[in-house]
Amino acid sequence: MPFKKIIIAIEEQHNVSFNYTEDNVAGLKINPPAKSLSLDEKLEYLEKKTNLSFENIGNKFINIYKKENPLPAICGYVFSSTDKKPIENANITLSNQNQLTTDSNGYFEFKKENTTTFLISHVGYTSKKITPANIDSKNCLQIVLEPKITELQEIKASAILASGISKNTDGSLEIKPKKFGILPGLIEPDALQTMQQIPGVNSLDESVSSINVRGGTHDQNLFLWNGIRMFQTGHFFGLISVFNPNLAHTISIYKNGSSAFYGESVSSVVAISSTPETSEKNSYSAGINMINADVYGKYNLSKKSYIEISARKSITDFLETPTYKEYFDKVFQNTTITDFSQTQNVDYRSDKKFGFYDATLKYAQKIGNKDQIVLDLITIKDNLEVFQSATAYTIIRSENNVLRQQNYGGNLSWKRNWNPYNTTKVNIYNSSYELLANQKNTYENQLVIQENTVDNNGFNLENNHVINSKFSFNDGYQYNEMGITNLELVQNPDFYRKAKDVLRTHALILEGKYNDTLSITYFKVGTRINYIEKFKKFIVEPRIQFNHGISKSLSLELLGELKSQNSQQIIDLQKDYFGIEKRRWIISDNSTIPIQRSKQLSLNLFYKKNDWLLDIENFYKKVTGITTSSQGFQNQLEFVKTTGDYEIWGAEMLVQKKMNHFLTWLSYTYNHNNYHFPNYEFPVFPNNFELMHSVSWAGIYEKNNFKIALGTKWTSGRPKTSPDISQIDLNNPVLVYNKPNSNNLHVFSQVNISSTYKWETENGIQYKLGISILNILNRKNEISEHYRVSTITNSIEEVETFALQRTPNMSFRVSF
Questions:
Q1: Which candidate, 73, 432, 561, 725, has a CA 20 to 30 Å from the CA of 159?
Q2: Cβ contacts of residue 744 below 8 Å, gap of 6+?
Q3: Angle of the 39-49 helix axis to the 3-14 helix axis, nearest 10
Q4: DSSP reduced 3-state for 328
């Protein structure tokens, strides 16, 4: 009988499996052994009748070899560590680059002289390297592969507001700039402009340096760029984000329920990462718009390392575009810069120089299969120089003003995958911020210098432990040192004041997560235990994220957090730093400047079915330890120093519908936001940043490489304080106010449009053209109002500040 037919019969009778090469048994015929014989007796019979040897492994697998080479040099079986089952089609890569795969029994074999080492790999398992020199070739290897567990971020829904924006199960919103579609008024995926489209996020003065999340001030938000805390977020004093929109890979935004690894914030968290999740090929790009030009390059130095560089610079040094003129008018209205020209109307001359730049550098290096080191550097700078002179009645008056704002940062991180279940991340960072104003008045021969500097250093340790497919646990330690210096120097009359404060904090973080995709339940609970050295004070901050799928279409989400913050921005005088960037950073002293603390709870219903999306979120938030100096008052509280809190509750709603290439959404936000200053004569009154009603709508069309978006935004007017005319002596006016924030400004309304078109040449070069117009209808929107006594007219003046008028912009980008 054919030999192959004989061994098939033995396999069926004794439930074993033969492994052999076709060359060894091809054409071989013998008389079959008796069926009554045992397995060992049959193997002995076959060995006598053939020139073959038989190796019996546990009465399960039988290897067949020729007698002149009784055993192959290397043979083995590959099993899974979890269920002990053989792994089929595992790849065996030899040192000479030859490859073979395991059979259905997980078996493989090859000659020893073919390789010095070999690698075993399979999708879903951790690869293992074997050195045959240390192997006993008389027996086959028993190789066990460990499953490779990669923790993926759970996505609840994608394409929220625009393509490239998704919502995670932990309640955060995630923006992928490289997949970003388009939003009204935006032609680039600017992180801080994009987040203002999210319900509950506003900027009352259209500035990315004044973003208010659920009633909070801008400094109460934590902005991180690759783990570095950024104290400056805006170019052009707030109209452009300092974060290069063409660089980021992932932007995560938390309005509530942030991880316990995020501290020093009582409002939102914006974490920007420029590190790709997977390896990418070399890429280069350059672009220009009506404000700035930029370049970007990523070059792979080897299979395990790459370098990434970006740089962006304003073009306002040599070209004043319509966009620049609108921005300039918006930024410098009602500042000392424009006050000078208004009061000197004879032979007035002015010379203005303004410019900004930012640059980043990333170097990433993998070491072996378990370690990776990443170095990130960033530098940001804005510089304004204004020389003004006027001659009136033969008297010459001139001022030379310099305003500089800059932020440097660096972060060195190391990540190690100890095994598929345990990972450690360590990073050391520094962030340095400086705001400097230098004013020289030749008429009075006076020099005024103001400086605010921040030096922030830190160390973070984070360990991730995967217990199984449902449970994971994180723990870590963070050390943070912050030093803030404020300097004021005046010559004629002479005055000098310099104050430096340093605060060091330690934090222990514990966090556990349960994620069951079958029951559609996500639960994450953690706590952050802060210790402040200077005050010898412990602050415990629990966090919670819970999400449960009531059905495949409907889910319920509960988020809660307690947080604290030791630094804040205050305004000493509205004309500090020329009234342009008048806020300065300070550190809490645990008495007159308390530690700010917040508590927040939100309940969310999320529905998604048949391209419909409905998101309704109700929230409550309270922040204690705020000071009047941090709230930007320009009424009777401007010079009052007291502490209190604000309390806000409200609802946010988003309705969205997608139809083929068309996406439309409507959002509405309601909030009720009050201050509580118990030591003031009016202890309760509306918050400066209250927008009781906000409505936004957008219609977006995307097909192939063409995108267009039209949208509108409407908000009720922010609170204002009006003078009490009945108590003011018009002959000798002194401001007397009504109750704080007892009135409101007129409603804010704006219509925006943007469009982009992309095309690619045969040689792979990609071009992108973008056009946008803010405030198409050129509506004059008032964004703030205050009052002052004019020394010239001896009367009370109403000072109004307005939003951007119609502002066009255009961009062009080349990528390859």
A1: 561
A2: 716, 717, 718, 719, 720
A3: 170
A4: helix
pLDDT of residue 265: 95
Q: CA-CA distances (angstroms) from residue 602 to 212, 237, 369? A: 17, 33, 42
Strands 706-715 and 719-720: unpaired
Q: If you search the block for the tokens 């080479």, which residue do you land on?
A: 69
Residue entry with tokens 């984000």:
241
**pLDDT class for 787, splitting at 50, 70, 90?**
very high
Q: Are 754 and 184 in contact (CB under 8 A)?
A: yes
What CA–CA distance (Å, rounded) separates 84 from 145?
Answer: 10
3-state secondary structure 329-370: HHHHCCCHHHHHHHHCCCCCEEEEEEEEEEEEEEEEEEECCC
Give the HSE-up count for residue 616: Cα atoms under 13 Å, Cβ half-sphere.
Answer: 5
SS3 630: helix
State both tokens at 763: 């040689």
How far apart CA 377 and CA 360 sit, in angstroms, is 5
Mean pLDDT across the chain, nearest whole number?
Answer: 90
Contact 453, 426 (CB under 8 A): no
On the question of a cis peptide bond just before residue 493, with omega within 30 degrees of 0, the verdict is yes
Q: What percent of the chain has pLDDT over 70?
A: 96
Q: Please compute, for residue 86, the number of CA atoms within 13 A of its CA located in the half-sphere on the CB side.
A: 17
CB atoms within 10 A of CB 368: 9
Q: pLDDT of 290-335, one tens digit each?
A: 999 999 999 999 989 999 999 999 998 888 899 999 998 898 888 8
How far apart CA 22 and CA 13 sit, in angstroms, is 22
Exposure of 688 in the CB half-sphere (CA atoms within 13 A): 25
Structure tokens at 95: 């040192």
Euclidean distance between CA atoms 130 and 611, whole angstroms: 51
Report the residue count for the chain: 816
What whole-number distance in Å separates Cα of residue 235 and Cα of residue 207?
A: 10
Residue 709 has what pLDDT? 97
Q: Whose CA is closest to 264, among 533, 588, 501?
A: 588
CA distance 25 to 46: 12
Distance of CA 795 to the CA centre of its chain: 49
Per-residue buried b or exposed e for 379-400, using 16+ beta carbons within 10 Å of the residue's own CB: bbbbbbebebbbeeeeeebbbb
Among 728, 568, 738, 746, which Cα is nearest to 637's?
Answer: 738
What pTM was computed for the model? 0.82
Q: Dihedral angle at the C-alpha atoms of 148, 150, 156, 160, nearest 10 degrees?
A: -130
The span from the CA of 360 to the CA of 364, in Å, is 13
| Gap between the Cα atoms of 324 and 120, Å rounded | 60
Which tokens go with 262? Answer: 């995020």
Radius of gyration for the chain, computed over Cα atoms and rounded to the nearest angstrom: 34
Residue 58, token pair as written in the block: 């546990």
Reduce the DSSP state of residue 519 to 3 states and report it.
Answer: coil
User: Distance (Å, rounded) from C-alpha 640 to C-alpha 135?
Assistant: 81
With bands split at pLDDT 50, 70 and 90, how would you rate the model's confidence at 342?
low
Hey, what are 436's tokens?
């400097």
- ∠ CA 616-622-628, nearest 5°, is 130
In whole angstroms, give the CA distance from residue 555 to residue 671.
Answer: 24
CA separation, residue 202 to residues 210, 245, 363, 694 (Å): 9, 20, 35, 9
Contact predicate 622/598, CB 8 Å: yes
Find, among 44, 39, 52, 98, the residue nearest to 74 by Cα: 98
Q: How far apart are alpha carbons 124 and 349 in whole angstroms?
A: 71
Closest by Cα among 648, 693, 699 to 675: 648
State the first-to-last Cα distance of the chain, in angstroms, to the nearest integer.
66
Which H or E element spans position 586? strand 584-587
Tell me if 333 sits within 8 A of 786, measured CB to CB. Answer: no
* 401, 362 contact by CB (below 8 A): no
